[in-house]
Amino acid sequence: MPELYIDGAWRAALAGGQRDIRCPADGSLTVTVDEAGPDDTLDAILAARRAFDESSWPSGSVHDRCALLHRVADLLASHKSDVARAESLDTGKRLVESEYDVDDVVAVFRFYAGAAAGTAGRVVDTGRPDVRSRVVHEPIGVCALITPWNYPLLQTSWKVAPCLAAGNTFVLKPSELTPSTAILLMRYLIEAGLPAGVGNLVLGAGPQAGALLTTHPGVDLVSFTGGLGTGRQLMAAVAPTVKKVALELGGKNPNIVFADADLEVALDFALTAIFLHSGQVCSAGARLLIEGSVKDKFVDELVVRAERIRLGGPFDDKAETGPLISAEHRAKVEAYVEAGRGEGAQVRCGGSRPDDPALSVGFYYLPTILDGCTSSMSVVQNESFGPVLTVETFVDEDDAVRIANDTIFGLAGAVWTSNAGRAERVASRLRMGTVWINDYHPYVPQAEWGGYKQSGVGRELGVAGLDEYRETKHIWHNVRPEVQRWFGDG
Ligand code: NAD
Questions:
Q1: For the segment 25-75, what is each residue's pLDDT rounded down to a tens digit?
Q2: Termini Cα distance of the chain
């Protein structure tokens, strides 16, 4: 079956484009998919436009839309193993992690089914008895949903679920590297009853399949998750048509450990913070900020444990983390570490590919710790999006906050301390969209996610994640209109 889904039909690309998707763990062929060119994307935009302007979808009942989202959640839950397997083959991540992702995706669809039903608008007291005033929410229109490869289906669900809950139509463009679960999601949406044209899927690389989504006047909103450089390009591209834009970009997230923390727990979490999914996590705790008095002992033990991390493919039960997404991405991580060496960072472990011949065909890179870093170094400022931890030392609370905030990013961060007052003080001073206290990485669909500073614009998840997909309209109804005689009557 062809893999582009446009105006209610699966079809191949007009220009015949195709791409082989290979598992990053061993290079084996996962699937060959059709790849859209601008002509296909144009058809998808026009189909979404017609479905918004001419069908009853946007003005239909919220109840029906929410029921559809629940049916999609049911389908995802009942096909969990197929979906997780497809995700792992595309990304190389461990199967168990993909299974967790599917659980989270189901929760996201269910959350937005409930959130949309419970937030219809509000009545405004104008102080005038002759006026009925209310604020209502309406869909924005045609939404372009552009997603990355690290959590392909999860990032997609953060967009598709609120987009549909609010009554919009969409064109989804997943990363060209990881299209499989977007195809599955589209099938479940259709099975759940999504009307033709409301949801459209184009696959392919950004410039060929995605660029038109940012410039075409028929698109009202671009919701993008990806790298900072692409985000800047997109923001410029949407300017001439003044589209709404939501950006979830990169991070360079500090994990701050005070000497009074439970250091055993903090150490364990410091590993997960950075090495989960080999660091290919936007909120990865890539900067360890450690209080000077405990630094040596903490980092020595961290190095010992990082060296023990077992790498392997998605279906290797013993593996603790997997490969990087591609040869190109690994080359970027390698260049990043070399830059760190050049700047004087000390490579305490990793800093190379693994020796194990069994891993030589995949895009593996060893968990790496760069010691002796300062925030003036490029390795501290730039996102590696790989398994690379930089270590900086601080002397006190003010110093920790100053160093932590000293980047252009503001996505997430954590503070570890047994002093509750300090924990709250630091949390409120960190310029980041998410702060964990004595924890790292958890999120829930009920709570907003997004970046301060150059980590993004807008929010996903929570009610704010729904508001991104809604216009707000004030309706003023004068129930006893009377002549005013502001101007004379002649
Ligand atoms: P990327 O910017 O290379 O690509 C993201 C998406 O944009 C892909 O679908 C790509 O094809 C598309 N794209 C590229 N150029 C385009 C163009 N000109 N027009 C339209 N679409 C275009 O990012 P990536 O490498 O796929 O993902 C990694 C990045 O994503 C990291 O920087 C990471 O921090 C970020 N990320 C952020 C969050 C968050 O919640 N803030 C979550 C996950 C990933």
A1: 999 999 999 999 999 999 999 999 999 999 999 999 999 999 999 999 999
A2: 73
What distances in angstroms separate CA 431 from CA 102, 441, 455, one per listed residue?
30, 17, 11
Q: In this structure, is the dihedral angle defined by the CA atoms of residues 88, 330, 150 and 434, taken in order, positive or negative?
A: positive
Q: Which atom number of ligand 1 is nearest to the Cα of residue 282?
A: 34
148 CA distance to ligand 1 centroid (A)? Answer: 4
Alpha-carbon distance of 186 to 183, in angstroms, equals 5
Q: Which of 3, 35, 87, 248 is catalytic?
A: 248
- What pLDDT shows up at residue 117? 83
3-class state of residue 221 by DSSP: strand
Q: Give the closest residue (by CA) to ligand 1 atom 30.
A: 226
Determine the Cα–Cα distance for residues 385 and 150; give it in Å rounded to an integer.
10
Which amino acids bring their CB within 6 angstroms of ligand 1?
Answer: 146-150, 155, 173, 175-176, 205-207, 210-211, 213-214, 225-227, 230, 233-234, 248-251, 282, 383, 385, 411, 451, 456
pLDDT for res 490:
61
- Ligand 1 centroid distance, CA of 193 (Å): 29
Token pair listed for 14: 């007009």
Q: Count the neighbouring beta carbons within 10 Å of the beta carbon of residue 435.
A: 22
Q: How far apart are CA 413 and CA 251, in angstroms?
A: 9
Among the listed residues 282, 291, 373, 383, the single catalytic one is 282
Residue bearing the bigger pLDDT, 1 or 482: 482
How far from 234 is each of 248, 364, 461, CA to CA, in Å? Answer: 12, 31, 21
Q: What is the mean pLDDT of the chain?
A: 97
226 Cα: distance to centroid of ligand 1 (angstroms): 2
**pTM score, whole prediction:** 0.97
Relative to beta strand 221-225, strand 199-201 is: unpaired
* pLDDT, average across residues 255-277: 98
Tell me how far CA of residue 176 lies from CA of 94, 124, 145, 387, in angstroms: 20, 46, 13, 22
pLDDT, tens digit (0-9, with 9 covering 90-100), for 117-176: 877 789 999 999 999 999 999 999 999 999 999 999 999 999 999 999 999 999 999 999
